Amino acid sequence: MSNEIRVRFAPSPTGYLHVGGLRTALYNYLYARKVGGKFILRIEDTDRTRYVEGAVENLINSLKEVGLDFDEGPEVGGNFGPYFQSERTELYQKHAKELLEADKAYRCFCTPEDLQKMREERQAQGLDTRYDGRCRKLTEEEIKAKIAAGEPFVIREKLPPEGEIFFYDLVREKVTFPWDMVDDQVLIKSDGYPTYHFANVIDDHYMQISHVIRGEEWLSSVPKHLFLYDAFGWKPPKMAHLPLLLNSDKSKLSKRQGDVAVEDYLAKGYIPHALVNFVALLGWHAKGDQELFEMDELIKAFSLKRINKAGAVFDVEKLQWMNSHYMKNMKLTDIADLAKPFVEKAGYDISENKKYLAAVRFARERVSLLTQLAEEIKPFYITPEISAEYTELSEEENSQNIFNFWAEKLAEKDVWQEDEINALIKETTTATGAKGKNLYFPIRLALFGTVHGPEIPLIIGLIGTKEAIKRFRNLIK
Ligand code: GLU
Q: Among residues 255, 328, 437, 466, which one is catalytic?
């Protein structure tokens, strides 16, 4: 095996990219980029009962949107493919056979009903509900007869009945498990497909994975995996198990308490990099107290040594705070690009780029989500409706005077400069007596549909004189 650092993100395509999956993918990505290694995407799709149409495309899309490009995997290929486990079944079959021959695994003919009964019996006796290993005792003749009779079977690993196993995890340090806590894991199911555990180990070996970086929920599976490495005489990869993600009440992060799909956050208008920055800090911290990182800064600062043991709370308010930060501080053209799909969905035409950028420059200071930005700039494009709360204001005599004055004055020429508009505002006071709120609120209401909002010259500059006149006229009774 070479000394190259090779890490992988190995999701089961269940429909979408979970934020926990994003964290796993990100840490693998950061580590690979930091040390100049390879980041591999492997699709663990051997559970045919959980197959979801379009799930892989969706997953790859989400990874792309947040900027995690992989070096090997579906679409990009590589020397260690195929990168879909469902295309590697022969490899698993071959290795299962080897294990049977070496007496490190055995065929189990127990039906789901047998297993259910066994569990109930064990429970009644106050035992745990592990498989009791009854099929270990079958003789060669019995096995042959069952196979000949067409009885379906699974292949289980033959774990040591007692003693313990320990290993070193880069996060959890020394971890010990007694063997009698570990189930004789099914390696090949009755449909001939491997389980996650088996395929995962075989592939990590053949794909020359040097470091396994994944969620803590897999820590208790490590003994089952190490048994396999040992049985094949392979060197296991180094491992780092990432702390759990928690809801704010410290329970395990769940759908019931909020969104968990990356695509849902993106659809709500979170900036992809804000999500990445936020997720990076769920279980890892930099040396100082820096919290805002560009991707290259994350890569530079990242280290497996600084991964925390304690669970990390998924604090949506912090994510919102980060999002507002990026909203205000990212390059204007980047924000404008990111907002485009939302604006297009809202259905107005932003093809005039200078106008669009000016509108975004104004709106980005006032909102914290891209969806809100699309709403905020709408009055620059679509004549605003006057909402019920402002009908009274728009019908007041003072307002009506102002509307008439502006509709008439603006019509005097086609293009108005900023200072000319400001002069016109002053002139309005002389003509109508309106000052302060009484002056600004009606003007802005007519032009923008709200009493607070952009500076009046900016609105007129962007919507144009004709449209401005129209907006005043619309409100004249
Ligand atoms: N397919 C597993 C999952 O969906 C991969 C776990 C691992 O990285 O080993 O999380």
A: 255
Residue 83 Cα to ligand 1 middle (Å) = 14
Alpha helices by DSSP H, listed for 364-396, are 370-376, 391-395
SS (H, E, C) 2-23: CCCCEEEECCCCCCCCEHHHHH
Q: What tokens appear for 284 in the block?
A: 């890892």
Q: pLDDT per residue over 350-409, tens digit each?
A: 999 999 999 999 999 999 999 999 999 999 999 999 999 999 999 999 999 999 999 999
User: Which tokens is 165 given?
Assistant: 């196993």
Expressed in angstroms and rounded, the spacing between residue 10 Cα and the centre of ligand 1 is: 5
Dihedrals phi, psi of 114, to nearest 5 degrees: -55, -45
The reply to whether 287 belongs to the active site is no
11 CA distance to ligand 1 middle (Å)? 5
Task: Compute the distance between CA of residue 184 and CA of residue 160 in angstroms, rounded to an integer.
Answer: 9
Q: Amino acid identity, residue 248?
A: S
Q: Which residues of 214-237 are buried (b: 16+ CB within 10 A; e: fewer)?
A: bbbebbebbbbbbbbeebeeeebb
Q: What whole-number distance in Å separates Cα of residue 6 and Cα of residue 19? A: 23
Residue 2 confidence (pLDDT): 62
Counting ligand 1 atoms within 8 A of each CB, the residue from 44, 51, 209, 220 with the most, and so the one to mutate, is 44
Binding pocket residue ranges, ligand 1, CB within 6 Å: 10-12, 44, 196, 200, 214, 218
Question: Which pair of tokens denotes residue 259?
Answer: 């969104």
CA of 121 from ligand 1 middle (Å) equals: 32
221: DSSP letter? G
Per-10-residue mean pLDDT of the chain, 477 residues long, equals: 87 91 97 98 89 90 96 96 95 97 97 93 90 94 96 97 96 96 94 94 98 96 97 98 91 80 95 97 93 96 95 94 96 96 90 95 95 95 94 95 97 95 96 94 97 95 97 96
Atom of ligand 1 nearest to the CA of 200: 9
Mutate to test the pocket of ligand 1, among 85, 193, 212, 214 (most ligand atoms within 8 A of CB): 214
Q: For residue 374, how many other CB atoms are within 10 A of its CB?
A: 24
CA 259 to chain centre: 10
